[in-house]
Design a protein that fits this description.
- The complex is a heterodimer of chains A (159) and B (245).
- Chain A is α/β, with parallel strands linked by helices.
- Chain A has helices at 15-25, 41-49, 61-73, 85-91, 124-135, and strands spanning 3-9, 29-33, 55-59, 78-82, 101-106, 114-117, 120-122, 139-142, 151-152.
- Chain A has a seven-stranded mixed beta sheet. A two-stranded antiparallel ribbon of chain A has the order 6-7.
- In chain A, helix 3 (61-73) crosses helix 4 (85-91) and helix 4 (85-91) packs parallel to helix 5 (124-135).
- Chain A is globular and about 40 Å long.
- Chain B folds into two domains: 2-168, no CATH class; 190-239.
- Helices cover 78% and strands 0% of the residues of chain B.
- Chain B is built from eleven helices and no strands.
- In chain B, helix 2 packs parallel to helix 4 and helix 10 (198-215) runs antiparallel to helix 11 (221-239).
- Classes of the chains: A alpha/beta (159), B mainly alpha (245).
- Chains A and B meet through helix 1 and helix 2 of A and helix 5 and helix 7 of B.
Chain lengths: 159, 245
């Protein structure tokens, strides 16, 4: 079993992911894909604190694209996280995430964002990146926790 | 620092779904910010604005973020760094606090005070025991957090790891389990046992305790179902005519 979950969640490794999804999917590794975080040791230290007993790797989008096929073939169960839609859309460029389920888990409120769901607030740019991600072949849907119902992207934004 | 410590108790006072602890965070930080930006009202206003933004963490551990944020402001860190620090720290502080306080410390101390009550101490002593012991841990955690944040700044992850709070939470878990077993035993051997059919209660409680010890820690679903069935059996037996009366 390679990558058991692709998730966009601003909070990255936190309660919902570690407890909610962690108990359901039993990951052995978190892959955090973010260009800024890949360069910042002190931030990596903080995010890794929340992952109790599970390995965490931080990668740039480019680095992650090179290793996607390797992870898929690897028996280690991984959860891949990005903290914004843009990084996930860049990861999926050229169909790299075609036919994969991509989960939208949490983007919080900020001035200028509009609400799609109580846990999903997006900018205009996020909407475009979501369309780009869906157009690249990924099956995008929102679901904060494994036992919540899945809301397809088509029900959240007009195509 | 003292003023920020006192104000940190009110950090949830303006909780809301949009900024969560944001407003309370800025309120607690205000005395420190005022001192730092005494000469520059515009910078003070900008600082207040960035600290009223969305923030969330466990209330008892928010001091870690408050101390570190104040240190970053004092070092003159740019706005982006401050924001990135607060974004990164809230997850670990939330999950660590939930595991340590709500899931371990609170139930362990509550169970201990119940055991003390059933052992014969009056309600006043057992309540006092709970309030004093629970809040001693609570205050120690708050004081430690604010100091660790202030002295380590953005490097506070190392302090959190070295303090072993996660390991402490894991060690407190079994303590709670043993205490609930003890409580079952005390209950079974107490007034209920005198009612004539105490033997059944003791047997049921012991069986539940053994079952819990054997299967509870894996938290697989069958164990949860078994526990519910066992509790239901106890309730049914106790409601039969001539049962627990």
């Amino acid at each position: 079993m390679p990558i058991v979950l692709f998730r966009v969640d601003e909070r990255l490794i936190h309660g919902q992911v570690v407890i909610g999804w962690g108990h359901a999917l039993r990951p052995e590794r978190y892959l955090v894909v973010d260009d800024d975080l890949a360069e910042s040791a002190w931030e990596q230290e903080l995010y890794a604190l929340a992952a109790t007993g599970v390995d965490v790797e931080f990668l740039t989008v480019g680095g992650a694209r090179d290793r996607l096929d390797g992870w898929r073939a690897d028996p280690t169960r991984s959860i891949l996280l990005t903290r914004d839609v843009r990084s996930m859309a860049r990861l999926g460029e050229g169909g790299a995430l075609a036919d994969e389920q991509v989960n939208l888990g949490g983007l919080h409120h900020e001035p200028g964002k509009s609400e799609l769901l109580p846990y999903l607030f997006v900018t205009r740019e996020d909407r475009e990146e979501l369309r780009r991600l869906a157009d690249s072949g990924a099956e995008v849907s929102a679901r904060d926790l494994p036992d919540a119902s899945r809301v397809p992207l088509a029900d959240l934004i007009e195509a | 620092m003292g003023a920020t410590f006192l104000r940190s108790f009110l950090v949830q006072g303006a909780w809301n779904y949009h900024t969560m602890l944001g407003t309370g965070f800025a309120f607690a930080l205000l005395p420190g910010l005022r001192r730092l930006y005494r000469q520059d009202p515009d910078a003070l206003e900008a600082a207040i604005r960035r600290h009223t933004e969305h923030f969330n963490a466990h209330p008892y551990l928010t001091g870690v973020a408050l101390g570190a944020a104040l240190r970053l402001e004092q070092e003159g860190a740019d706005e982006g760094t401050v924001r990135r620090f607060k974004t990164a720290v809230r997850g670990p502080l939330g999950s660590l606090g939930d595991r340590l306080v709500w899931a371990s410390w609170l139930p362990a101390v509550a169970l201990a005070s119940l055991v003390i009550y059933w052992l014969g101490a009056g309600w006043a002593w057992s309540s006092a025991f709970f309030l004093v012991v629970y809040n001693a841990g609570h205050l120690a955690l708050r004081v430690w957090g604010l100091r660790a944040g202030w002295s380590a700044g953005r490097e506070v992850a190392g302090r959190l790891r070295a303090a072993g709070l996660g390991e402490l939470a894991e060690r407190l878990g079994p303590v709670g389990a043993v205490l609930s077993g003890l409580l079952c035993g005390v209950l079974g051997a107490g007034p209920l046992a005198d009612a004539g059919d105490g033997g059944l209660w003791v047997a049921l409680a012991s069986a539940g305790f053994v079952l819990g010890l054997a299967a509870g820690h894996r938290a697989w679903r069958a164990a949860a179902v078994g526990t519910v069935v066992a509790v239901a059996a106890v309730v049914v037996v106790s409601s039969l005519p001539g049962g627990a009366g």
